[in-house]
Amino acid sequence: MTEASYPADIPTAQLDTERRFVRITGERADGFVEFDFAVGEPELFVEMILSRPAFEEFCEMNQVQTMGPAEDAGPEDRMADFAWNLRDATGKRFR
């Protein structure tokens, strides 16, 4: 495998893995919390679900910062077709 060479004027991306983020996206009647979790960059996240006690422990262990509500992509956004999540897909049938 060869090492990739990049132009010298492109800065190296810095990712601070100590920064952790949580955005609550829903709370179920059965006591589960649906949330987004990100490490380093709030724009790159995974969707998770935990019971309320487990969620609170998870947040404490990870020393998370709370994110505000997600901004919806407008129709003019050329990536709008990709602006969905698993929560949106649960009620849809795919062929």
TrEMBL record:
Swiss-Prot/TrEMBL keywords: Monooxygenase, Oxidoreductase
InterPro entries, sorted: DmpK
Single Gene Ontology MF annotation: monooxygenase activity
Pfam family, one: Phenol_hyd_sub
Protein name (Swiss-Prot/TrEMBL): Phenol 2-monooxygenase P0 subunit
Species the sequence originates in: Marinobacter pelagius
Taxon lineage: Bacteria, Pseudomonadati, Pseudomonadota, Gammaproteobacteria, Pseudomonadales
